[in-house]
TrEMBL record:
One of its GO terms (biological process) is Gram-negative-bacterium-type cell outer membrane assembly. Keywords: Chaperone, Isomerase, Periplasm, Repeat, Rotamase, Signal. One of its GO terms (cellular component) is outer membrane-bounded periplasmic space. It is an enzyme of class 5 (isomerase). It comes from the Bacteria. The keyword Isomerase applies. It comes from Oleiphilus messinensis. GO terms for molecular function: peptide binding; peptidyl-prolyl cis-trans isomerase activity; unfolded protein binding. SUPFAM superfamilies: FKBP-like, Triger factor/SurA peptide-binding domain-like. Chaperone involved in the correct folding and assembly of outer membrane proteins. Recognizes specific patterns of aromatic residues and the orientation of their side chains, which are found more frequently in integral outer membrane proteins. May act in both early periplasmic and late outer membrane-associated steps of protein maturation. This is Chaperone SurA.
Length: 450
């Protein structure tokens, strides 16, 4: 199974990465209320000369200014979403609980030596800016225009990432999904619908006037058949739709969107599943006229051809005893050795800090799209079979990779099982996360001041 192959340091995108993706996704509504995601600068300006302590949490505190700034942030967000605010005392209690839990988790991160490097943080901020349609400089100006400093935003993101990593470390190991659970999910109605084949449909309509004589009907049939013949002879379906179709989606190239099998139009429900991608149907007759349907793209289902690459890599990590620059210098030295004839596998065994692949000479096996973190996948896709990449950085550290081979393989069943496992893992993770948060709160020393 794909998910079973991606253990350890194989750079599989984990729930920490997904949480970050969710954070990035919430940036889409910028520039309206950029500061909603971050602590309000106005709240910070209200910081009193002597800031009162609301709660002692283990070795740290939650202050009055933190509570005020977070409540300002949440109020701004709810107002922007036109969501009614809870009573002030209820909001205060909820926000205080949130800050206490964050303080506990940030102290855990510190004790465990977890760090978010400046390079990782800069890359994350650039990604957030890009997803919001800004350059980094433009994003900084957008924040500033709403009273939020770029440094405040950076530190908020750093805290989010640290908390995410703590949760993944502590909660991720509690979650186990069995093969039988995956099979049961795939056989359920919910599972079947979620993993069903989806078709991107194209449609061409040649209308027939109501009550038209047989001669007109035959003429229209000949017209639609001629269009079908041109498409079969390599004419572009979407261009033909724009030029000839009388359907309401004609100016969109006849594209009517993605449809699962149980969502297919009735006239095409028996036809579409039999069509290959790019194939056009026979003329289909309804009261409105003659139709042609084509499957422009297909995804999901039990048959999915995937382009895979056989990859091996070497990983060098920055750490408490090795700076970012030293890690980069070391991977560059290994890169030069390989270029000068050094054996990749032997260097991976002796130098790589990926504990899973290192002992196997850096071998990651056959890798499918979406299996690796974006930085790794981008370099992998740009590297031809038999070639070695230059050193590059991911959230895990510095890498070099070699693509040994490429192939296409039908991974439909494996992908379905992997998707099902991911759904079940996320469900269990959320349940375990809530349990764990209650546990750490119950075990921590917390003194809430009256």
């Amino acid at each position: 199974m794909i998910s079973e192959r991606c253990a350890g340091e194989k750079m599989k995108q984990n729930s920490s990465t997904k949480k970050l993706a969710g954070l990035v996704g919430r940036m889409k509504w910028l520039p309206l209320g950029v500061s909603v995601l971050f602590y309000s600068a106005q709240a910070f300006s209200a910081y009193e000369a002597i800031d009162s302590v609301l709660a002692i949490v283990e070795d740290g505190i939650v202050s009055q200014s933190e509570l005020k700034s977070r409540m300002t942030t949440i109020t701004a967000r709810l107002n922007a979403q036109n969501t009614p605010l809870p009573p002030a005392d209820v909001m205060r209690q909820r926000v205080l609980e949130q800050l206490i839990l964050e303080q506990i988790q940030l102290q855990m991160a510190d004790r465990e030596g977890l760090r978010i490097s400046d390079a990782q943080l800069a890359e994350t901020m650039a990604n957030i800016a890009g997803r919001s349609g800004y350059s980094l400089a433009e994003f900084e100006e957008a924040l500033k225009s709403e009273g939020v400093s770029f440094l405040e935003a950076r530190e908020q993101i750093r805290r989010e990432l640290l908390i995410s990593r703590v949760q993944q470390r502590r909660v991720g190991g509690r979650v186990r999904v069995t093969d039988s659970e995956v099979e049961n999910y795939l056989q359920s109605s919910v599972g079947k619908n979620r993993t069903a084949t989806e078709y991107l449909l194209g449609h061409i309509l040649i209308t027939v006037p109501e009550g038209a004589p047989d001669s007109v009907i035959e003429m229209k049939l000949a017209e639609v058949q001629a269009i079908a013949d041109q498409i079969k002879s390599a004419a572009d379906f979407q261009k033909m739709a724009v030029a000839r179709s009388e359907g309401r989606n004609a100016l969109d190239g006849g594209v009517i969107g993605w449809r699962k099998e149980n969502e297919l139009p009735s006239l095409a429900s028996d036809v579409v599943p039999q069509l290959a991608v790019g194939q056009v149907s026979r003329p289909l007759k309804t009261a409105s006229g003659f139709h042609l349907v084509s499957v422009l793209e297909k995804r999901g289902g039990q048959s999915q051809l995937v382009e895979q690459r056989k990859v091996r890599h070497i990983l060098i990590k920055p750490s408490e005893i090795r700076t970012e620059q030293e890690a980069k210098a070391k991977i560059e030295d290994i890169y030069r050795k390989i270029q000068n004839g050094g054996a990749f596998a032997e260097l991976a065994k002796s130098e790589s800090e990926d504990p899973i692949s290192g002992v196997s000479g850096g071998d990651l096996g056959w890798v499918s799209p979406g299996e690796m973190v974006p930085e790794f996948e981008q370099v992998m896709l740009q590297t031809k079979a038999g070639e070695l990449s230059a050193p590059f950085r991911s959230e895990f550290g510095w890498h070099i990779l070699e693509v040994q081979d490429q192939r296409e393989k039908d991974l439909g069943e494996e992908i379905q099982a992997s998707q099902a496992r991911e759904v079940l893992q996320q469900r269990k993770y959320e349940i375990e996360l809530q349990k764990w948060l209650l546990e750490i709160k119950g075990e921590a020393y917390i003194d809430i001041k009256s």
